C-alpha cells in the first residue's frame, strides 16, 4: 500500500485492517502487506507518522498495489506514479481508493478505461484526464485489472471485493461479519451524493429483499415482488433503482448466483442440484449466468474455492503447488 504526505487516516486504515492483520483461521496464508512511502517518516493526517514504511521498490514487487486517497492529487509524487506504472507493467493488480485514482490516471493506467472516484472529484478527474471514462455514480469498478473506488467507505467495499476474488465468498462473508459490514455491495450501487440514493431500509424494501432471499428456489416474477411489497410494479422498480441501481429481476439473478457460489464453496452436491436450489433451473442456465456474473464456469469456481482458505486461489490463476502469501 502506498502512503503519501497528509493522506487521510480512514483510507489508510481500511487496507491495513483488511489485508494487514494476519487471519490464518480464514485463509492460510493471508496477505503479506507492506506500507510503502515516497519519503521516509512520511507524516499523514492528524500528525501520525509512517515511521517504518518501506520505499517504492517494495511497491513495484507487489502482487497487488493499493493507492489510498492522495491529498496532492493535482501533482502526485512522480516516484509514486512511476512505481505504480512499473508494478502494473510487472503484472500487479492495481487498486485506488477515493482520490488515489489521480495517481493511476497520472501513470496512464486509466487511459481508455472506465474509472470512478469520489463524486466531489469526478469532474476534475474527467477534465484533467480526458482519456479516462469517468463514472461518478458507482461505488467501485474494475476495468482490465485496474480497480477504482469512490470515497471513504467505498474503499471497504473494494477491499472486500478483492478478498472475495482471491478467497471466495465464504471467507469474505466471515471477514465482513468480524468487521460488522455488509459482505458485498455491488459496485454499480449508487454513491451517496448531494441527494443520497436511499439505502434499502430507507425505501422500505429491506423486508422484501429478505423475503426474496428465502424464496430463491421459487420461480419469482416481478408481479410476485410487487404483490409481496404491496407496491405497483412501477413504484417497485423505482425504489429498487434508487436503493440499489438495479432492477428487481437483475438483483434476483445476482442473489441466485451468489447463493450458488456459496453452495459450490461449502458443499459437494452436484451442479444440477445447485442450479435447482438457487432458482436457476438447469445446469446450463446456471453456467450461463455464472459466466456472466463471475467470469468463470461453476466447475472452475468450485475447483478454485471449494473449502476456501488455502491461500491465493483467484479464478484467473492456477492454484500453486504450495501456499504462498499474496503481497499487498
TrEMBL record:
Taxonomic superkingdom: Bacteria
Ranges where the record places region Disordered: 305-328
Residue stretches making up the HTH araC/xylS-type domain: 206-304
Residue stretches of biased makeup (Pro residues): 318-328
PROSITE patterns for the chain: HTH_ARAC_FAMILY_2
Assigned keywords, A-Z: Transcription, Transcription regulation
Protein's UniProt name: Helix-turn-helix domain-containing protein
Organism field: Saccharopolyspora halophila
Amino acid at each position: 500500500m502506498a502512503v503519501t504526505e497528509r493522506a487521510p487516516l480512514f483510507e489508510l486504515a481500511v487496507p491495513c485492517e483488511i489485508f494487514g492483520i494476519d487471519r490464518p483461521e480464514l485463509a492460510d496464508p493471508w496477505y503479506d502487506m507492506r506500507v510503502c512511502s515516497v519519503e521516509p517518516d512520511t507524516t499523514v493526517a492528524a500528525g501520525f507518522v509512517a515511521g517504518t514504511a518501506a520505499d517504492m521498490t517494495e511497491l513495484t514487487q507487489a502482487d497487488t498495489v493499493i493507492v489510498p486517497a492522495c491529498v496532492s492529487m493535482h501533482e502526485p509524487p512522480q516516484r509514486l506514479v512511476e512505481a505504480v506504472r512499473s508494478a502494473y507493467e510487472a503484472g500487479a493488480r492495481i487498486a485506488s481508493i477515493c482520490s488515489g485514482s489521480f495517481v493511476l490516471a497520472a501513470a496512464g493506467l486509466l487511459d481508455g478505461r472506465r474509472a470512478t472516484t469520489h463524486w466531489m472529484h469526478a469532474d476534475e478527474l474527467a477534465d484533467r484526464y480526458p482519456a479516462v471514462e469517468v463514472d461518478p455514480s458507482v461505488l467501485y469498478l474494475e476495468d482490465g485489472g485496474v480497480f477504482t473506488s469512490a470515497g471513504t467507505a467505498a474503499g471497504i467495499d473494494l477491499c472486500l471485493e478483492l478478498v472475495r476474488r482471491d478467497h471466495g465468498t465464504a471467507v469474505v462473508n466471515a471477514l465482513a461479519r468480524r468487521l460488522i459490514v455488509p459482505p458485498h455491495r455491488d459496485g454499480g450501487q449508487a454513491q451517496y451524493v448531494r441527494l443520497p440514493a436511499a439505502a434499502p431500509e430507507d425505501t422500505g424494501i429491506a423486508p422484501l429483499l429478505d423475503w426474496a432471499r428465502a424464496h430463491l428456489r421459487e420461480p419469482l416474477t416481478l408481479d410476485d415482488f410487487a404483490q409481496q411489497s404491496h407496491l405497483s410494479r412501477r413504484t417497485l422498480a423505482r425504489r429498487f433503482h434508487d436503493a440499489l441501481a438495479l432492477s428487481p429481476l437483475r438483483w434476483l439473478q445476482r442473489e441466485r448466483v451468489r447463493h450458488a457460489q456459496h453452495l459450490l464453496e461449502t458443499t459437494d452436491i452436484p451442479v444440477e442440484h445447485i442450479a435447482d436450489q438457487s432458482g436457476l433451473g438447469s445446469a446450463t442456465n446456471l453456467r450461463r449466468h455464472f459466466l456472466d456474473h463471475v467470469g468463470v464456469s461453476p466447475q472452475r469456481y468450485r475447483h478454485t474455492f471449494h473449502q476456501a482458505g488455502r491461500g491465493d486461489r483467484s479464478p484467473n490463476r492456477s492454484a500453486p503447488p504450495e501456499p504462498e502469501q499474496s503481497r499487498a
